[in-house]
Specification:
Layout lengths: L4 E3 L3 H13 L6 H8 L7 H9 L15 E4 L3 E3 L3 H4 L10
Antiparallel strand pairs: 1-3, 2-3
Helix pairs in contact: 1-3
Length: 95
């Protein structure tokens, strides 16, 4: 199990990094970015973090779950395997 706890200190910087990652995907437009992570002025923190942390394939491993959950809205996000929580996964912003 891997758990990552974050404190978001600059939501605009987080949004910019997530938007850059999203726009690097083929066919992605700024309208798609806004639909996925919201506007810079009011970003979806969980979606921004999903965009930046969604795991790629890891050799020899099977992904059992990926979730971004806001414990304290806008401040702390946890990534937990789905079997630990028994709840459905949130869709990853970058698929």
């Amino acid at each position: 199990m891997v758990t990552l706890a974050l404190t978001v200190e600059d939501a605009r910087a987080l949004w910019s990094a997530a938007a850059d990652r999203a726009l690097s995907a083929p066919g992605m437009t700024i309208a798609d970015v806004l639909d996925t992570i919201g506007p810079r002025e009011d970003p979806s923190i969980a979606e921004c973090i999903s965009m930046l942390t969604a795991p790629a394939g890891i050799a020899g491993c099977a992904l059992e779950g990926f979730e971004v959950r806001e414990e304290v809205p806008g401040q702390v996000i946890h990534l937990l395997p789905v079997q630990e929580r028994g709840t459905p996964l949130l869709p990853a912003a970058n698929g």
